[in-house]
C-alpha cells in the first residue's frame, strides 16, 4: 500500500516538473507569457459574442458569459486531447532511453490543459460581476463534472496516442474533426436552436454534454437533466476503460515503434 502511494507521489512530481517546463517554454515564446492563458478565452468571447449576437436570433440571457463557458470547456478538450495524442512521439527519447512510463506524458498534457482552465476562470470573475451572475452551492457540482471530463479526455487521449504512433495522418484528421465539433457542441448556440433532425444526435456529443452541465452549475444555478449525466458517465467510463485496455495491449509495440 505504501509503495503504491509513494509511486503515485513520484509520478505526480514528475508530471508537475514536466508541466512546469512545458509552461515556461510555451509562455517564453510570447511577450504576455502567462497572461495569454487568461486573455485568450476572453478575447474569443468578445469576438464570438459580437459576431453571433448580431446574426443569430436568440433569447439567451447573459450571452457573453454563455459563450465564455463554452469556449473554456471546448479549449480544455481541444488542448488536452491534442497534447495527449502527440506526447508519445514528441517524448520518444525519454520513453525509450530513460524508461519513463508513457502514461506519465499523457497525464501531464491533461494536467497542463487543466491548469489553463483554472487560469481562464480568472477572466470569468469580471464577467460574473458585470453580468450579475449569482453563484450558488451548485458550483460544487463542477468537481464531478470535471472529473468525468478528465476521464473522457484521458481515454480519448490514449486511443489517439496509440493511433498517432502508427499513423501520423491521425493528427491532421483529428484536427479537422475537433474543429468541426466546435460548431456542433453548443459553444455559442444552444441545442434547441439547432436543426431538429440533428438535435438528438448532437445531444450525445461529450463536449456538448460537458458544456451543458457546466453552464447549469456555474451560470444558471439549476439542476441538469439526469440523461445528460448518464450520457457523460457512459462516455467517461467507456472511453477510459477502452482507452486503457488499448494502451496496455499495445504498450510494447508502441515502445518498439518509437
From TrEMBL:
- Where the record annotates domain ABC transmembrane type-2, the positions are 32-250
The record's annotation in InterPro entries points to: ABC2_TM, ABC2_TM_bact-type, ABC_2_transport
To which protein family does this belong? Belongs to the ABC-2 integral membrane protein family.
Q: Name one GO biological process term.
A: lipopolysaccharide transport
* UniProt entry keywords in alphabetical sequence: Cell inner membrane, Cell membrane, Membrane, Transmembrane, Transmembrane helix, Transport
Report the locations given in the UniProt record. Answer: Cell inner membrane; Cell membrane
Family annotation (Pfam families) = ABC2_membrane (PF01061)
Q: Does the keyword Membrane apply?
A: yes
Bilayer disposition of the protein: Multi-pass membrane protein
UniProt entry tagged with the keyword Transmembrane helix:
yes
Can you say what this protein is called? Answer: Transport permease protein
Q: Which GO terms describe its cellular component?
A: ATP-binding cassette (ABC) transporter complex
Q: Where are the transmembrane segments?
A: 34-51, 63-80, 117-133, 140-166, 172-189, 226-247
Q: Which GO terms describe its molecular function?
A: ABC-type transporter activity
| Main location per the UniProt record | membrane
Q: What is the lineage of its organism?
A: Bacteria, Bacillati, Bacillota, Clostridia, Lachnospirales
Amino acid at each position: 500500500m505504501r509503495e503504491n502511494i509513494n509511486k503515485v507521489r513520484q509520478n505526480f512530481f514528475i508530471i508537475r516538473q514536466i508541466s512546469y517546463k512545458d509552461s515556461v517554454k510555451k509562455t517564453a515564446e510570447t511577450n504576455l507569457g502567462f497572461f495569454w492563458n487568461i486573455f485568450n478565452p476572453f478575447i474569443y468571447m468578445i469576438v464570438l459574442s459580437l459576431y453571433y449576437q448580431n446574426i443569430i436570433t436568440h433569447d439567451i440571457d447573459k450571452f457573453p458569459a454563455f459563450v465564455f463557458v463554452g469556449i473554456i470547456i471546448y479549449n480544455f478538450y481541444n488542448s488536452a486531447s491534442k497534447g495527449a495524442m502527440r506526447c508519445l512521439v514528441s517524448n520518444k527519447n525519454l520513453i525509450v532511453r530513460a524508461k519513463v512510463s508513457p502514461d506519465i506524458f499523457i497525464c501531464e498534457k491533461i494536467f497542463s490543459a487543466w491548469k489553463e482552465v483554472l487560469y481562464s476562470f480568472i477572466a470569468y470573475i469580471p464577467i460574473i460581476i458585470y453580468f450579475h451572475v449569482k453563484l450558488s452551492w451548485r458550483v460544487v457540482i463542477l468537481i464531478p463534472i470535471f472529473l468525468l471530463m478528465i476521464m473522457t479526455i484521458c481515454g480519448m487521449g490514449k486511443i489517439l496516442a496509440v493511433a498517432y504512433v502508427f499513423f501520423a495522418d491521425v493528427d491532421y484528421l483529428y484536427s479537422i474533426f475537433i474543429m468541426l465539433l466546435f460548431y456542433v457542441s453548443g459553444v455559442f448556440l444552444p441545442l434547441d436552436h439547432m436543426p431538429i433532425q440533428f438535435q438528438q444526435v448532437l445531444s450525445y456529443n461529450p463536449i456538448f454534454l460537458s458544456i451543458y452541465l457546466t453552464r447549469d452549475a456555474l451560470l444558471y444555478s439549476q439542476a441538469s437533466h439526469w440523461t445528460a449525466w448518464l450520457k457523460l458517465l457512459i462516455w467517461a467510463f467507456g472511453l477510459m476503460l477502452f482507452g486503457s485496455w488499448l494502451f496496455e495491449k499495445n504498450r510494447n509495440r508502441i515502445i518498439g515503434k518509437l
